[in-house]
Amino acid sequence: xxxxxxxxxxxxxxxxxxxxxxxxxxxxxxxxxxxxxxxxxxxxxxxxxxxxxxxxxxxxxxxxxxxxxxxxxxxxxxxxxxxxxxxxxxxxxxxxxxxxxxxxxxxxxxxxxxxxxxxxxxxxxxxxxxxxxxxxxxxxxxxxxxxxxxxxxxxxxxxxxxxxxxxxxxxxxxxxxxxxxxxxxxxxxxxxxxxxxxxxxxxxxxxxxxxxxxxxxxxxxxxxxxxxxxxxxxxxxxxxxxxxxxxxxxxxxxxxxxxxxxxxxxxxxxxxxxxxxxxxxxxxxxxxxxxxxxxxxxxxxxxxxxxxxxxxxxxxxxxxxxxxxxxxxxxxxxxxxxxxxxxxxxxxxxxxxxxxxxxxxxxxxxxxxxxxxxxxxxxxxxxxxxxxxxxxxxxxxxxxxxxxxxxxxxxxxxxxxxxxxxxxxxxxxxxxxxxxxxxxxxxxxxxxxxxxxxxxxxxxxxxxxxxxxxxxxxxxxxxxxx
Amino acid sequence: xxxxxxxxxxxxxxxxxxxxxxxxxxxxxxxxxxxxxxxxxxxxxxxxxxxxxxxxxxxxxxxxxxxxxxxxxxxxxxxxxxxxxxxxxxxxxxxxxxxxxxxxxxxxxxxxxxxxxxxxxxxxxxxxxxxxxxxxxx
Lengths: 482, 138
Description:
The complex is a heterodimer of chains A (482) and B (138). In chain A, 32% of the residues lie in helices and 26% in strands. By secondary structure, chain A is α+β, with helices and mostly antiparallel strands. Chain A folds into two domains: 5-97 and 337-353, no CATH class; 103-336 and 356-481, tRNA-splicing ligase RtcB (Alpha-Beta Complex). The longest helix of chain A has 36 residues, at 279-314. Chain A is globular. Chain B is α+β, with helices and mostly antiparallel strands and 138 residues long. The two termini of chain B are 23 Å apart. Chain B is 26% helix and 39% strand. The relative contact order of chain B is 0.25. Chain B is built from two helices and eight strands, in the order E-E-H-E-H-E-E-E-E-E. In chain B, helix 1 packs parallel to helix 2 (61-79). Chain B has helices spanning 22-38, 61-79; strands spanning 4-8, 13-19, 51-57, 81-91, 95-104, 115-116, 124-126, 129-137. The interface between A and B is large, with 41 and 32 residues.
């Protein structure tokens, strides 16, 4: 039976707090950003108990947090945020997730929606044919061992050096598309093997490439800064570190388990962790950085292929099409960040699993262009609904400048397949003006719009809680599903 | 509950299984995985039984299960081999020494299992049978 909603106090609009006195094992409060309906759904699907379990971990800074796209995950809920002191805290692979640095990147363009409509079908077929997707897809670039090591150390910079592309993109990628990695021994052979074969592939499940149109602008000044103009086309890419990240996570869960399981009292074994300054903790953080660099490189390569397809279809170069990277953000990651607590600066390892970093205007880690607007926060909806671009706000300090990352699943894959039995999902979306391309009809049925929460509700809760502000709404024109 | 079956949660899918002892529990875990990946369990070939060794010693049956299933997922995903049977030489709550009998995968797996998780995983004994449920990252 789920915890009664009455245990939560709405301390501010769409901010619900569960005091640590509610559960003997809690060492910190839990705070959920949600409407009442979303909170109830999260109670029903067990995600709230996962937020509580994280609040039982030692050394948590602030509260155990969840964003409005909260849903049940492995050990740690999707939409969860947890921070631990950098000097004596813990690191938990469950707080990052298996798909390390799964993330979203958004490209703006000057292509009018009407011009794109003429070539949309051809673009969809070309993207599906040229960008590897689906089960066991091998990537655009096969790497040998040495090349792989260089890539995971160099991230996007290495992609630009080896395969071309615009090195200027790096400024608009979180952490410049490269986190420090100098310990090749931290990576297991199987992880490297899986990664080397998959660079430049979309994967399966909820990963996608979407061509969208800017449908509505809420904040014209910020939209101008981000390069978003009504009626113009944008491209969104959602993928991660493929088998490499999954293997890194699996390997370190095993390592942490061997070293630490016997001495830890865990409510869920998936919350296994290690001290940040232990040998295994340091090695995991190195491997995490390598997998993050791989994911940024993966999205960069896919972006270059998408640009090539658009250039061919519209017979115009990248500059002529006005294609510019707006931002690339990670939503499964743990990073060292400086935050303020009780008027003092404190260095924390912030875990975000299905949550987006959302730095406020003026943050020193933002590119110069975004210092006045705040960080772009990209929130994809389902394949049949709008997506949103928001921006970071100063009032999100309480969530360690974190925001939602998507609509969040509502139905299981099995329920979605059952609900769409006998239905031609592509035809339904085509009737709404959305072209869908996928190698898997079952994959499409798993991803029907009803499988997700209403993204408008998620964004409304995000805005009401003050953790981000709306900039623009995007409408899908073409979807390529992994 | 059947000897093995599949189930789904909001974002994930998994397998539930039981056994009269550890050997049967591990065998049924592999059968459950086959059901999820391919929709059926093949018959092991009578002759010419290609196999791969699986030897693991861990901290408990959960640890054995996750590593056994991860090995079977890797065989299917990376080598195109489906586990059609298991010859167990020794099995207890911490150790499994076995040979996994393989056949070529009849088709691509129906779903892409990326990792085998410990999420809420606990082997429990009930009415003289061991039971467990493993959630898979898909």
